[in-house]
Amino acid sequence: MWWLLAGWLSIQHGILPEIANDVKFAASEDLWSWVGYIDGNDELDILHRNKKRATLIVHHENSDAKYHYVIVWSHGMHGFHDFKHNMYPQLRTLVKRGFSFTLIEPELPWSTYERSIDARRAWTTPGSFKRMVEAAMNKVPTMKKHLPQRIVVAGHSRGGKSIAYAATSGGLCDMNPHLILWSDATYGDWLKRAWKACLRSIPDRVEILYLSGTETQNAVRALESDIHFEMVTVRPFRSPWYHGKIGDNALILSILLGNN
Fold this sequence. Notes:
There is one protein chain. By secondary structure, this protein is an alpha/beta fold. It is built from eight helices and ten strands. The protein has one domain: Rossmann fold. It has helices at 17-28, 83-86, 88-96, 128-137, 159-168, 190-197, 215-223, 243-255; strands spanning 2-3, 9-11, 32-36, 55-62, 68-74, 100-106, 149-156, 179-183, 205-211, 232-237. Strands 1, 2, 3, 4, 5, 6, 7, 8, 9 and 10 form a ten-stranded mixed beta sheet that branches. Helix 5 (159-168) runs parallel beside helix 6.
């Protein structure tokens, strides 16, 4: 029988009020939620308004589910503080479909609260990505039923950069993710960098969503001769789809279309 920790929330002192409102909203919708500073994503950041970056965690257990998904969501521009509109509708769909999950959304160096976002990178410290995920999971309630975990690492837009550097600095593929999801995120050399670092060696799947006729499509095509596409699913999108719409539906498109 699935269960919810209704109204339970935790907000660490010093969190920006806009982010705290996201946690309060999640709790009002009967989702366990927490935001604060955790190992792996709390490095000194002199360009941030708070001098360090927060991590948002939203958790829902369905003990009747087959798996518990640990979803690490790396947002694009300004995505971190807009949980109500960007992420909540997707999570509510997963709840209705009987999924059990923990969403980990780390604030990244290109959030609204940074004074500069150009040339910024995430997960540059060796193993920091893995430490962040483990620290986040230590914050969630003890689950009533032990379910096999499936780790999903997803990046939308500029979030593709975080996948690239999590792969090159170590930690990402050490976790044996079930799925790496690129949500219109394969700009520049990010896919190539991640692929050569470790994505070609992971045991499960890579999924790439991109908007046709754009730079993200070009990056995928540039690697077609190197990537063994039996383990890669590529989904092109055309109008009326657009960049933001792909990101607002990426988890549903991926998890509900064959990855459950």
